[in-house]
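Hey, sorry to bother you again with one of my protein questions. I've been staring at a protein lately and its backbone has me curious. I owe you a coffee for this, so here goes:
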Amino acid sequence: MSSANLSVKATGSTTLKCSWSYYGIPAGHQFCLYMKKTGSPSTPPTIFYPSGTRSGSNTFGGLIRGANYTFYCYDYIDSSHYTELDRVSKTMSYSPPPPPPPTPSGTLSAEATGAETASLNYSYSHGSSVSLFRGNDLLQTFGSGSGSGVYEDSELDPETEYTYYLRNGTEVGSALLAQASINTPELPARGTLSAQAVDSDNIDLTYTFADCENASLFRGSTKIKTFGSGAGSGVFRDTDLDADTSYTYYLRNGTSTEDDLLATASASTTEEPRQSVIRQGKILPLNSQVSIFDNTLTKLGILEDYEYLKWVFKYRNFGNFKLNVNRYKFNTEYLSKGNILALYVAGYYRAAIIESIEIGLDEKGKLSENYTIMGRGLGGLLAERGAMEGVSEDTGYDSQDTFAETAMRHYINLNCMDADDANRNYSLLYLEDPDGERGGNIEYDARFQQGISEILEDLSLASGLGWEIVLDPDNKRFVFQIIEGVDRSSGNGENSVVMFSPKFGNIRLLSYTDSNLNSKNVAYVAGQGEAAARTVVEVAKDGGTYTDMDRREFIIDGRDLDSEAKLTQRGNERLADLGEEKILEIENLSTGPFSYGEDFYLGDIATVVYPDIVEADLRMIESIIEISPEKLIQNKLVFGKQYPDIININENKNKNFYPEVRR
């Protein structure tokens, strides 16, 4: 038995598509399909298909919107014999399908803006989580929809090709919208240069350079040094210059004045040449820059911006410093314990070791932004080595009968540089050559002194010499050297005179003490032996005679000494330590005729005249340099001796117990 199925759908505003299938149409019969508009006369069938089974479709066009059409199918023999198999009615109406979603699109252009940077201009439309990739690395997700902008890429490698991809998504496999490539150029040559006058014919040039070829230094149009290629840094000293003259220097990437300029700096030499003084390093810092070195004497940086610096230099002992600085300032990351700070003074770095770092609390109880950094001068290293050499041999004493300078060098060498126990040696410590054999002859027994610096102070008091340790970063050394004071008092008759007085405008009195507190002028030094057999030597200050109320006696234990000469020297040492009575602290004003470091220095004896207060010849034993943004550089001088405070008095009393310890 034959059968059929029909279905109809609108395929356009005036077209209908009729799909059909039929089964089992007998031989000699046909499958007939025709369409009739409702309300119109019937029309004969128009489409015939052969017997059997088949399926297909037919499209009818030119139809009227809103009209109803009925489709019929028959098992057809002839116009009088046919059987209806199926019919379907459809009103002519059509809604077009929604348009397809818009296709995401984008643009991307790239430009290398430097050896390590690139700029990328992008735009996108109809995107979803549009993202920028460098190779397979996601750099930035811009968002969805439409957008545009500029993305700056950095930390690239010089002389390298990079390809960027704009993708519709956040994955490497997301649809590609656009791509662009760049090639970064090579790094440009770079450099820095600063100039600092040392004296009347020397200027120091501090330089750095990177990615250079034959980086060279020029004075004006004259090439004075080619440093080399690649990268480098250091300090170059330009010598044999004219006094009181301005010079301009140029650091260039090449050996010709036509080559690219990397940096420039200018400086002027000083007015009056004082070479003998300069060689002793006796010029004040020309600026307030503080250099920072690590414990290998590699320069880490310069500290220029700080709140306060106080640096104490001493004639007979090591000094100290105190630095206040905001901990967020440039290069403060190098302010760590064990590193070294230095003021550059006429060819020498006057240096100290960072030993203390403090961060206090502010008014709200929070950590302050300021560091307080403190430490001792390089001479403090000698306080960390006791007199231990020879204590278990022969007499148990390291006895010296020689020049004071020679003895100082001997005790430093034996306990700090060439000790039997190599762990006691300072690898960077050197003695200035040659031995000047200064200070006159002394006799000294070393045994169990707490620090070699204590021995040096004793020898300084006995001889009149001073000492210091300076930093030599070029040769990676700490250099011990002697300071020999000069008599510049008004009646010396040999050396140029230095006077401090309001009439010269070179003094501001800070404090003055004229005291006999703890002062002694006669010493009884008790040596070896028992009861009446014990040797006792009387020593008077400066060989004078002191009687009645002017006589101030002091008993000294000298059981560790084996001769009257040594007992006498011990007495003179202690009297020198206790005998100076006048103590004067002044500010050395820069408006006066005498300049610290040029006309006088630590250890010199100068005449001080201050009306109604003091008129005396006093030895300068301390210089205190204070630097702050408000007051700039100030230099305070201490004449006479250390103040006899409780600490100093106790130290002097303890010295009388040491002989028992050293036996």
